[in-house]
Structures are given as C-alpha cells and as structure tokens.
Amino acid sequence: EAGVAQSPRYKIIEKRQSVAFWCNPISGHATLYWYQQILGQGPKLLIQFQNNGVVDDSQLPKDRFSAERLKGVDSTLKIQPAKLEDSAVYLCASSLFGSAGSEETQYFGPGTRLLVL
Amino acid sequence: DAKTTQPPSMDCAEGRAANLPCNHSTISGNEYVYWYRQIHSQGPQYIIHGLKNNETNEMASLIITEDRKSSTLILPHATLRDTAVYYCIVRVYNNNDMRFGAGTRLTVKP
C-alpha cells in the first residue's frame, strides 16, 4: 500500500513570496490533515478535511494560509505572503474515516521542509 | 496545549529494553493514549495505542496504569534504528486533533 505522498520535499523562498505544497493521501482515506512542525517542537494541526469539506481550521492563520481539497483526494496548502516564522516542516496525514471518538490511526507523509529567508 | 508530560531525553543500550514513560493525569474516560515516533527527517510513524488495557504489537508494548494517569511504552529489544523522538498523545474524544508535545528523544547506543 502506497503511503502519503508530499511534494516538494524542500523549498527555499524569500519573505513575502508565496509557496504551495501538495499532498496525495493514502487511497480511500476520507480524512486529510495538514500539520506545521517548527524545529524542536511537535507537529501542530493546521487544518482537517473530511472528503472535500473543512472539519477544523481553528489553528490555521487564515490571513496568509489557505488550503483546499477540491475533489476530496489531493490537497494543496498555500502560504501568501510568507514570513520568516513560517520556516518549518509541513506534514500531511490521512486517516480512513476520521470519525470522532474512533480509534483511527493517522498516517503521515515525509513532509515539506520550508525555509523562508 | 498538550496534555502529556514526557522526559525530554533518554538513552538506551542496544539490545536492551527501552521504557519510555508518559504522564497524562488529566485524561478522561473516553480518551485514548497514542504513541508515535519520528525518525530524523521523516514524518511521525504510528506505534501503538490503548484505552484501558495493556496492548502489544510487533513494534512495542503499551502498559497503562489502572488509574490511567500514566503509561509506559516498551521497546523490548532496542536497535540503533529505534533512535527517534517518541510522542505520547492523548486523543481528544470529540475530534481528531492529535496534540503533540515535545516528546522524548530516545538515543540507542551501541
């Protein structure tokens, strides 16, 4: 079974530029998550999709971050404009159903490492 | 905020058991304890989870105290490849928000 795919693996941009990350979840997984992991910290959830609908985006900085999952499969996360503090690893994860209270496991991709100069 | 407390780092000799503790004193009755690990430059990898009973799989064992306020992840025969950051996470019942803390950096030494 193929895992969660992410691209690019690395990205270097200057502040105020825009950047986009792509994620392809495990086939058949209804729920997709984007996490931000700053160096030395654990991952922090940014947004959760159930199929193509947003379940939770309470921790997404909406003034500069946006995400979409138009067909309920692939997803893109965009930052515009980027700030120095956005330097982090952006992780995508997926789970089969994502039902509240279930024992579901989240499977993570390798992440995209972003450096903002 | 994360609801778990873990030591920041631990060492273990190769071939010996690694016992990683986690305190979760405010856990509620329907919350699960999950363990993930993250090897350098990779995404977190699921290890094991439990609610009340002890659990074992091909990777590890999870021992949860009777009052559920703490747990221990056991890697029975640690190898150099087990060097990673280990996260203990309490799963919030009403949603899928996995609240990661800083984790324990386990170093397995030859």
Task: Write a concise synopsis of the structure shown.
Chain A has 117 residues and is mainly beta. Chain A has no helices and eleven strands. The mean pLDDT of chain B is 91.
Distance between the first and last residues' Cα of chain A: 37 Å
The strand line-up of the biggest sheet of chain B is 1-9-8-3-4
Mean pLDDT over the residues of chain B: 91
Beta-strand proportion of chain B: over 45%
Major sheet of chain A, described briefly?
A: 7 strands, mixed
Assign the structural class of chain B, choosing from mainly alpha, mainly beta, alpha/beta, alpha+beta, or little secondary structure.
mainly beta
Q: Would you count the extended β strands of chain A for me?
A: 11
SSE run of chain B: EEEEEEEEE
Rg over alpha carbons of chain B = 13 Å
Query: What Rg of chain A is obtained from the alpha carbons, in whole angstroms?
Result: 14 Å
The stretches of 5 or more residues of chain A where confidence is low (pLDDT under 50) are none
Topology:
The complex is a heterodimer of chains A (117) and B (110).
Chain A: E1 5-7, E2 10-13, E3 19-24, E4 31-37, E5 44-50, E6 53-56, E7 65-68, E8 75-79, E9 88-95, E10 107-108, E11 112-116
Parallel strand pairs in A: 2-11
Antiparallel strand pairs in A: 1-3, 3-8, 4-5, 4-9, 5-6, 7-8, 9-10, 9-11
Chain B: E1 9-13, E2 18-23, E3 32-38, E4 45-50, E5 55-56, E6 61-64, E7 70-75, E8 84-91, E9 104-109
Parallel strand pairs in B: 1-9
Antiparallel strand pairs in B: 2-7, 3-4, 3-8, 5-6, 6-7, 8-9
Description:
The complex is a heterodimer of chains A (117) and B (110). Chain A contains no helices and eleven strands. Chain A has 117 residues and is mostly beta strands. In chain A, the strands form two sheets. In chain A, strands 2, 4, 5, 6, 9, 10 and 11 form a seven-stranded mixed β-sheet that branches. The model of chain A has no long low-confidence stretch (mean pLDDT 92). Chain B is mainly beta. Helices cover 0% and strands 45% of the residues of chain B. A five-stranded mixed β-sheet of chain B has the order 1-9-8-3-4, with no helix packed on it. In chain B, strands 2-7-6-5 form a four-stranded antiparallel β-sheet, with no helix packed on it. In chain B, a hairpin with a 6-residue loop joins strand 3 and strand 4 (45-50). Chain B is globular. The termini of chain B are far apart. The mean pLDDT of chain B is 91. Chain A binds chain B through residues 4, 31, 33, 40-45, 48, 55-56, 91, 93, 95, 98, 100-101, 103-111, and chain B through 2, 30, 32, 41-46, 49, 87, 93-98, 100-103.
